Amino acid sequence: MVSEDWVVRYHNRLLQLERKSQHWAPARSRVRVRENEAGEVAIHYRGQRMVFRELKASTAMSEGRGAAPSPAPPSPILRRNLPPAPNHPWRKGFSAKAHARFFGAA
After folding, report:
1. CB within 8 A of 85, min separation 6: which ones?
2. How far is residue 60 from each of residues 19, 21, 57, 82, measured CA to CA in Å?
3. pTM for the model
């Protein structure tokens, strides 16, 4: 599978695909990696051979690839639903005057 930055991981090796055009991107696509008996690696995408270069392990580790994932950010503190304050307008009730205005004089 090709990552967003056009890197394919194969047997703990990182293979950087060369871009053929700016508009065409095989990111998140499946590719076929073939290795012959001599150890030569070829990457094929939709029947076409892709040009690539192997990234050094030290370069990959400095960019954060292959390292342990960073811990998840802390969860936001969820506020409980607190009851309204004693002087909140909801606690005043529906006055008779407002009732008559809302529903009309009965």
Report:
1. 91
2. 19, 24, 5, 50
3. 0.50
